[in-house]
Design goal:
The protein is mainly alpha-helical. Helices cover about 90% and strands about 0% of the residues.
Length: about 150
Amino acid sequence: MKTRDQLDDARQIAHIRTLQLERARVEAQRLAHQLREAKARERAAEDDLNAHWHAMRQVLDGPAALSPELLHNWTGAAAAARNAHALAAEQAQAAAREVEAFRPTLGQHQRQLDLAESIADRARRRHDHACEDAHSAKIEDLFLSHGGRR
């Protein structure tokens, strides 16, 4: 039956679209998790940098003088903390860009699923209508074959 085949095909397509959307949602969750982790690393690096600067200010405000070696060492540590923060911030921005770039893909999968479900619903209605027509024709044929007698 042609309408039955169309209905089966439409249901299969809708099922495939559902799977594709689910896969896209899993990918979106993965990207969101990466973004949260990158932001946490950025916050931790920023906290480390702030703690380093706070400790340096406390020592510089104190009465004791720093040796040139210690000051050089501290300057190197500050540069490393600054670089770690810059790298973490860059990674967080890259993760945010990935999330934003994926949003249209997720929306596209949702629209494709909605369309496939709509097509499957129309195919189901056409199939139901064709089945009703066939059943009505069969009843009419039976009625006519008995000569319209009761």
